[in-house]
Sequence to fold (176 residues):
Amino acid sequence: MKLRHTLDEPSEQDERCAVEELNRRLEELHDTPVSISQTYWSNLLVKTNQRIDEASSAKAISISWAARVAIPGVVAILFFFIGLHYYAPELPKKESSVASLMGTLPEDAVDSLLVRPEQVGLSLSTADLSSDIFQFSGEQITEYLAASGNHELLVENMDDAEVATLLAALDLKKNL
Fold:
């Protein structure tokens, strides 16, 4: 339950004093105003224009722009890079082997990268591989092109002996 605080009525004497004080102040305000000289009014427009020109000058605008935009922008960028340096999570560095790298690739991409695919295991490292891992024989390239279905490129890279062998194989199949 809320209690209301009642205000006491001011006494007659306090009220009379307040009315007299108000009347005295009103009389002070009704004094004749001090007349402003004519030079003030004639120079008012000129001085106002000077103040506007000072506030809109290049120096005032550049200082205002620097204080409102440039300095806070530079401070924000600095804090961003400081925060990035100190609070960025450090990722653990893992040494990966060729086997783990090959394990992440799809089977189609692995095709003939290794001459001996049986060596791919958990302990395979770069020391286990020969230095000519990306050197392929003509037979390996031909087998890859035939398996991947790129017959046009396969036919373009065939020499005369391979073309003769292919034609002979096709003749044998035709006779069967």
Notes: Residues 58-87 form the longest helix (30 residues).
